[in-house]
Specification:
Chain lengths: ~160, ~210
Amino acid sequence: MPRQRKPIPGVDPKLLIKDAAKLLPGPSRRLFLRGAASLGALATLTGCDIIDGPTAESALRVISRFNDRVQAMLFNPNTLAPEYPESAITRPFPFNAYYSQDEAPEIDGGNYKLEIGGLVDSKKSWTLPELYKLPEVSQITRHVCVEGWSAIGSCRA
Amino acid sequence: MTIDAAANSPVVPDTAKGPVIHPAWVRITHWVNALAMFMMIGSGWQIYDASPLFRFIRFPPQIALGEWLAGALLWHFAAMWLLVINGIVYVTLGIVTGRFRRKLFPIRPREVVNDFLAALRGKLSHDDLTVYNAVQRLLYAGVLLAGVVIVLSGLSIWKPVQLKYLTAFFGGYDFARYVHFFAMASIVGFLTVHVALALIVPKSLRAMIFGR
């Protein structure tokens, strides 16, 4: 299935859940995937328990794709999220994690590689020094979690 | 029009052959809306549970729709079409046919108080279902307003970037969630009373099904 990735101004719950939903194409695969590492990413995104959804979901996903087309028609993809002053940053910034802080794996910065996959032009992997050399931009915007909560953070890329 | 004639007749006989109380478009949009509300509220409860606004309010999954957050979002964003398109048809016809003006207005506070007290004493007449009493007028107009608020606040939390002025109008993203929640709560409160009274006065339920 062809996938189109559009730049996401701010965090858009609808697009986020669309991506999350794509990770779980069907109940059988979902069962297979349960507990697998790839679900870790989904759990990180949604922070919710993975429960088998009803089969109605596949029909609903057809409507969801229709919604995507309607949204692409209605909305301007270049609209930027409102920016905030540094004083507006939420501290501490809430987040969902797949594991608690003490369970976080130790990573050797020297060997670290960021691997890029999916529908991108360049699939080169990146080492930390290479990443540090990239030009930096930062933006203080509201992060809207698909769960409903939101927090203002400074995103650096 | 039939409705005017009905409004002028002193007493609607309690037979199947009385005047039309609810024209077909009211009955169709009413039941489509009931279905849409069921889906929107049920899935909304499931979505709410992913990040509750109040520690003491959580909706058991047994009474919610969608089983998990992503499933509930799919329901919510599918049923929204039914709710909004049906709502637009209903409000347009309600204004164009003059039904809203005729049936819901005027709403006079003194009459509302009097009718409310009469209802508590069990003395409110239901002989003529074509005329709404003052409490009904207030509640029906109020739930229409809640419907507008819930759709607009819903849009503002669905698209806080694209519709940032609407989101700002509702006091920002976080506050708009509370607005959306309390609009839901008022609609559920209305439904509780509405369904209870429809069951207490069954001929009103019959009128909404068969029109008379």
